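Dear colleague,

As promised, here are the two records you asked about, laid out in our usual form so they can be pasted straight into your sheet.

NAME FIELD: protein one
SEQUENCE, THEN STRUCTURE:
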Amino acid sequence: MAKGYPDFYGFSVFPKIGPVVDDTVAPLAVPTDVLTTVHNVVGKGEIVGGHLRFMGGVDYTTTRLVLIIDGDTAIDQLVMRMWYAYAFQPDCGPLFITSINVVTHMLAIAFTRGITFEQSYQMQVFHSEGADRDVYSSVFYTRIL
C-alpha cells in the first residue's frame, strides 16, 4: 500500500510512494563496441541507491557510462574521467566510484540516492577494448504514485 500524507482536500502536497523495488542484473555480458542497456525503468520514481560492479580481466580505461533520465542524457562519461573528478566522494554526482583495482581491473560504481525521474531511467554501458565484460548491477528505486 502507498505511504504518504492523507488526502484531506482531494489532493496531497506530498507525493505518495510505493515500496522499494530491487532491479538486479547479475551478470550481464557487455559486448565490445556495443552500447548496452543495463537498467531501463519506465514510469515515475526516485532512485534510492544501487551499484555497478565490473569484474576483472578487461581494462576499464575505455569503459563509458551513460545515464539517461526522462530521455535526456544526464551523464555520458568515461570511467577514468570519473576517477579524476569524484572517486570515493558520495553525493557529488549521479555516479561515483566506490572501489577500483588497477591490477585486476575490478571496479565498483554506486548510484547517488535522490535522483528523480518522471518518465524513465536508463543506465547504459559501453567499452571498446578487449573481450566482453561481465557487469553485475542493482538499482533500488521507489515508484511515486
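NAME FIELD: protein two
SEQUENCE, THEN STRUCTURE:
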Amino acid sequence: MANSDASDKDIAGAIMLRGDFTNTKFKAATMSKVYADEAKFDGADFTNAVMDRGSYKKLNPCEICFPVESAKWPFVHSTLEARGSGLS
C-alpha cells in the first residue's frame, strides 16, 4: 500500500503487520484497534488523523540487515535479549 491515499478512511480492527505504508496519506483517517507491528510508515502523512488503541512497534534494528533466521552471533543474542526485556 506504499504511495497510496487512505485519507478520511475509517480503519478499524485492521491487521497491518509488516505492511509497507511508505509515503501513504492517512490525512484525517481514524485508526482504531490496529495491529501494525513492524510496519513501515516512512514519509506517511497523519495530519489530523486519530490513532486509538493500536500497536505500532518498530522492527528491531538488528533484524533489518540480519533477519533472525539468518543472523549470526552477536545479532541473534542482542535481538532475543531485546525481545525478552520488552524493549523491542
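A couple of things worth noting about protein two: Residues 75-85 form the longest helix (11 residues). Helices lie at 61-65, 75-85.

Best,
R.
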